[in-house]
Design a protein that fits this description.
Three copies of one chain form a homotrimer. Chain A contains twelve helices and eight strands. Chain A has 282 residues and is an alpha/beta fold. Chains A, B, C: It holds the Pfam family ECH_1.
Amino acid sequence: MNRPERAFPRQEIRLERRLPTYWRVTFDLPPVNIFGPRETLRLGEIITAIEQDEQVKVVVFDSAVDGFFITHYDFLAPLEESANIPPGPTGLQALPDMLVRLSKAPVVSIASIRGRATGVGSELALASDMRFASREKAILSQWEVGAGLVPGGGPMARLPRLMGRGRALEVLLSADDINGDLAERYGYVNRSIPDAELDGFVDALAMRIASFDKQAIADTKQLVDVASLPRDSEIKPEWDAFIAALGRPASQKRIKALMDRGFHRAGDVENRLGFYVGQLGS
Amino acid sequence: MNRPERAFPRQEIRLERRLPTYWRVTFDLPPVNIFGPRETLRLGEIITAIEQDEQVKVVVFDSAVDGFFITHYDFLAPLEESANIPPGPTGLQALPDMLVRLSKAPVVSIASIRGRATGVGSELALASDMRFASREKAILSQWEVGAGLVPGGGPMARLPRLMGRGRALEVLLSADDINGDLAERYGYVNRSIPDAELDGFVDALAMRIASFDKQAIADTKQLVDVASLPRDSEIKPEWDAFIAALGRPASQKRIKALMDRGFHRAGDVENRLGFYVGQLGS
Amino acid sequence: MNRPERAFPRQEIRLERRLPTYWRVTFDLPPVNIFGPRETLRLGEIITAIEQDEQVKVVVFDSAVDGFFITHYDFLAPLEESANIPPGPTGLQALPDMLVRLSKAPVVSIASIRGRATGVGSELALASDMRFASREKAILSQWEVGAGLVPGGGPMARLPRLMGRGRALEVLLSADDINGDLAERYGYVNRSIPDAELDGFVDALAMRIASFDKQAIADTKQLVDVASLPRDSEIKPEWDAFIAALGRPASQKRIKALMDRGFHRAGDVENRLGFYVGQLGS
């Protein structure tokens, strides 16, 4: 558990109860907001708190790390740490379990995306009820296919429902970086907002919804979910496919090549992951 | 049935058979095109005529009242008037019944939206086959959650199929006014058209479709509907949720607060309902 | 099989294996890329090759004919030629069979659309995994309803899943030409690209995907398809409806009127088919 190689002053996911009805969850895992087994456990606690609290109506997810919303899963963490996390209440593995529960919670979840939302970051945004992006500073991507992997946290189920099959296949199979403007045109996010206005916009929307009746919110959301939310049985095979792909030589070779170039460290590979997965060769 | 307090020179929903193949339905219920039990009965007659006529191919819905397409349900009408309307042929309550039947009719329905399409107005537009909006003068909204209500006429089933779950949840849970530009970007309407061109555009499209073969139109529409139209069983619980919410103190308090400020009368509350529901407090 | 009346120097659908992993299929059927029974057989061979090859990862469809990607079905070919083609492996008729198989193949298909993609051309593009259009030179349409027909190759199932029911009904029931800009706004194509950049964009995307791992591509695509691809049982009735409509006087009269004006020949009717079907009268 001791990781001196990235001993940053703080390494946390913060839960701030700005109001009893309006919470903020802030990812502060410098330098690049990598999400691994420890973060899985921490986010799981927060999702449970969201589900159980009787007052909260809105929760906003954002980042305190410049350039990164949340990036990909932690491929340096010992595999046992991930494997040892038990499945969640839905019966799904921990990460897809908490994403599914976030979507179903009787609380409005809003992803406020500034910087890279790659892999897990994109998957958390897609599991949230709404997504707003910085027009200049947001990058969304599912980079996994570029590394010989299959995404594991729901995007094959969720992206086609937001943007249609063709654009979803482009996002997933190009494995490339999508900027704020294109993310809005594709429906990857609700809207892209000029960076200087993003925080004010999201805060005003959250405050507005927090002023409404919790039961009216929850009942309306539940009726939307009837036809628009994937069933758990659609989410499950994605994680299985991710684990299977992780064990294949194609992904091991590509992940190693990325590591050799600077993956998992501050620098150009993390900043332009879409470019680098396109340079690995077949 | 006598309502001297809004005794306007005319209070009607007009059906004009412009051609045997092309009909227009015009809402003329000044000052703000509120839709209540009387309008439910009248629109029901028109929907039945559309279903039974052998020649009509296209019907356009528009408004003769400046600033309003159709706004919300009539909360001043005696509740018995609404309760006394029997369910329709689908077994659904009268309003969702006629919206469902409009979607299934072997006739093309087009909503031409100028002014506010709020609540029932948005729901009628969503049940129509196509929606075109004045870029400058259309406002769409589902304001209900802002008043502690749950919308009752189908938008939880229909909006996510048009714009994806995230944007649908934003429309429904922000309960805010959506202008013509954003309505087009979100797919709430097919297109927003410069106001000066809207009538000509819709008329030309209607005339064009009216020149085509009725069976080719009906067969094509029926095949589109197989996968894209919600089943009646998805629509039904929305009305039930609306009625349940209407009986709760949260909505009663909010509707009363809106009435105190000028709801149901010409003026700023009706003109900017999205703003006002955001001012009621929790 | 001898058709001296359109004896062009070449009449073919070319398969070029640019790399073992990256194929191009080019429609070269001047003057207007009409697609008939002979092309059905040829494209069927190509789809089978795509399914069976172990190396190919990406196939791009494009055209060598100025102004036309692929236009409509060949109404001059003897009906026996079409009727004699046996159903395909899916049990569907030959054309819908091969479109369905293309969508399901473990290979990424990309339609690069320059010129008219009308009828069969639109249907092939919709069955492809991704669609990119020349902003200036692409026209997409389902013209069939304008000729008293019902489209037969899947668009009633596929269009609403890409753009929602309202825009799909507009495309199908207006039967009008859709330019590159509107096609992008509606999600008919992934993106419209300035014509000068289209070929470079598509080639770079294809080369990029061809550098990725075939199994990661195939597994990811298969998971996207679970919820986003129509079942074969939705596609089948479209072909049946097309054949039924083709036997009705309404379509025969309209097709004859189009033939009298120049249909199936180079010229204004083929160039502006959307306009001409609007001139036939009811």
